[in-house]
Amino acid sequence: MALSKPARIKLALGACAPPAAAFALSQGARIEWAPTLLAGVIAALVLFHWRDAGRVAVAALSATLGIMLMEKLDPRYETFRSFFGVHRVEAARGGAFRTLAHGTTLHGAIRIRNPDGSVASGRPVPTTYYAMKGPLGEAVSAARAAHGSIGQAAFIGLGAGALACHMRAGEPVTFFEIDPLVIHLARDSGKFRFLSDCAPQARFVTGDARLTLARGPAANDIIVVDAFSSDAIPVHLLTREAFQLYLSKLAPEGLIALHISNNTMEFSGIVARIAADLGLAAYMRRDEAVAPDDADFRTPSLAAVIARDAKHLGALAAQGSGWTRLEANRANWPWTDDYSTILPALLAKHRR
User: Fold this and answer.
1) How many angstroms separate the CA atoms of 85 and 90, rounded?
2) What is the DSSP string of 161-194?
3) What is the rounded CA–CA span in Å between residue 277 and residue 271?
4) What are the DSSP calls for 282-344, one per residue?
5) What dihedral angle (degrees, nearest 10) is formed by the CA atoms of 308, 309, 310, 311?
6) Confidence label for 181 from pLDDT (cuts 50, 70 and 90)
């Protein structure tokens, strides 16, 4: 009996799908488009069998298992799961760098091979948002210039540990990190050298920074709050009460630096409003003139700095420095532990 054209297409697809899927699974660790091939095969199966709930369910299960298997086979990256989500360590830029990501958010990268292909060695150079000439790098330099050297630093958020390489020998630093797995990846896994090569004596405090910083050392010359780049925003670290805590742990002429890069929200207005409410000087720098394929893996970033007086910011408050003073919109309420809304931050990002 002759088959209809739709039947012949389904038969051909059914015959081709298993070997195509097998090829995609076997090559997924070596060929970048293999996952796309697998996804195409699964999508075609769903398209031709969408009326059959059982077959659609099998196709969906196959897709899930296939992707999981590819991740296990792919030597370019590893995934690690903790209570706070999935962390991914991956080779990037043709194997020249190793990156750490949480979900879709990049949390640092280290060079592992030089442009000539040799293995990178020596003191690591901070990359991505943490480049020496980026906003955060300038904030650390300003704190050092104000005191000659940094007597004590507190960094909230660890990532791959790149900020450690902004510290000089003899400058103590304490990292406050909520996820023990991040500390393991940055310090103990051997995948990143920022901490071991730049700040081997750094202290680590695990837990929510609103609680642990309160018990931490006071008189910090600089406090860096680097916790706002993810999609899950720890609002309690960006409230008036949080800023009051930072001030209580800050040296009289110290500064607070906030890394507020975010794909969906603009936090500069939130920072400006709280700073105005507390009578503080606040400046920001938006570092966007960065090539997408920057050779040193520098990435665009946005940071704000706050001090009790603008003169404590030194060169950052000078005209032509690239930093601009943040002016508060008094019509907006400051975020507090009792009140916060992300709507202004979402709208501000949309208007840019």
Assistant:
1) 16
2) SGGGGGSPTT--EEEEES-HHHHIIIIISSS--H
3) 10
4) EEEEEE----TT-TT-B--EEEEEEESSGGGGGGGGSTTSS-EEPPP-TTSPPP-SS---SHH
5) -130
6) very high
Share of the chain above pLDDT 90, in %: 62
pLDDT (tens digit per residue) in 34-80: 556 656 666 666 666 656 666 666 666 666 665 655 555 555 668 88
Helix (H, G, I), strand (E, B) or coil at 224: strand
Mean pLDDT of 100-113: 90
Residue 216 dihedral angles phi and psi, to the nearest 5°: -85, 180
What is the spatial distance between Cα 127 and Cα 104, in angstroms, rounded to a whole number? 18
Show contacts of 338-341: CB within 8 Å, 24+ apart: 340/235, 340/238, 340/239
Distance, CA of 112 to CA of 109 (rounded, Å) = 9
| Residue burial 104-137, b: 16+ Cβ < 10 Å; e: rest | ebbbbbbbbbeeeeeebeeebbbbbbbbbebbbb
Residues contacting residue 344 through CB under 8 Å, at least 6 positions apart: 269, 270, 332
Q: Are 115 and 96 in contact (CB under 8 A)?
A: yes
In the numeric block, which tokens belong to residue 172?
């103590």
Residues 6 or more apart in contact with residue 245 via CB below 8 angstroms: 210, 213, 214
Max Cα separation, the chain? 90
Q: How far apart are the first and last CA of the chain?
A: 64
- Both tokens of 236, joined, read 């309690």
Who's near 234: CB < 8 A, 6+ residues apart?
227, 228
